[in-house]
Amino acid sequence: MNKHQTDNANASAFPVDTIRAMFPALQRAGDFIFLDNAAGAQIPQSVLDAVTNHLVSHNVQRGGRYGRSVTVDQSVADARTSVALLINAYSPAEICFGMNATSFIRLVSLGIGQMLQERDEIVVTDMDHDANIATWLALESAGAKFKWWRMREDGNLHVDDLRPLASDRTRLIACTVTAHSIGSIVDVASVAEIAHSAGAEVFLDCVHYGPHGLIDVQAWDCDYLVCSGYKNFSPHMGFLWGRFETLKRLPTFREDFIPDE
């Protein structure tokens, strides 16, 4: 069997109709085709059922001692465990859920901004989504200096171009895993090696890689990573992963009565 025959056999074995039936939006779309799926995926019935069940039966305050509150706390813990397995995190305690990836980038940047030392430098790229560029550039008011890791004409970020940008002044390297516009994939494990050799941290935007490849924060050896659930069949939300000790060091914004731990 040649490659063309193998591809046809694999395509025939893929249960397209069964999978399409999982998505109510596709069943109701008629002739309409959702060609903007790179921006956000449709939601399957199982997710709709889970959200509906929560809002109807468990829309209660977390942290209580009564049954429904305990159930909600357990569902959040289970979700953290699932995401930790998905991205090969060291612990479910490293998973944070929130509004979207952009808000998490901003949250982490504000924390890092409070810890910047004089002449600290941040490396950004011209391949990234603006959320992972402008958010860091906003730290100029906190004294940060910036270096640009730029794409070559072949549409890729080459790690050899990053090496001379990293120094003992580098505080953080922020880059994407996959370019949102052209799909180029970055050798992020090498990025982490360069960053850590310089005593810096790595912040990865995995929003456009997550739906198409396996995330492995241990193999990549990064320090922070954000991803969007809504590109992976969830409601409009995102998650942040960070090394537990790294997250604990970040200054946070919360009510005074909430303890540090």
Write the H/E string, N to C.
HHHHHEHEHEHEHEHEEH
**Gap between N and C termini:** 59 Å
Q: Could you tell me the radius of gyration in angstroms?
A: 21 Å
The CATH class of the domain at 91-249 is identified as Alpha Beta
What is the residue-mean pLDDT, rounded to a whole number?
A: 91
SS field, number of helical segments: 11
Helix coverage percent = 25-40%
Q: What is the CATH topology descriptor of the domain at 91-249? A: Aspartate Aminotransferase, domain 2
Strand content: 5-15%
Unreliable stretches covering 5 or more consecutive residues: none
CATH architecture of the domain at 91-249: 3-Layer(aba) Sandwich
Sequence of strands across the biggest β-sheet: 1-7-6-5-4-2-3
- The tally of strands reads 7
CATH superfamily annotation of the domain at 91-249: Type I PLP-dependent aspartate aminotransferase-like (Major domain)
Topology:
Blueprint: H1 3-13, H2 16-20, H3 24-28, H4 45-57, H5 67-87, E1 95-98, H6 101-113, E2 121-125, H7 134-137, E3 145-149, H8 159-162, E4 170-176, H9 188-197, E5 201-205, H10 217-220, E6 224-228, E7 238-242, H11 244-249
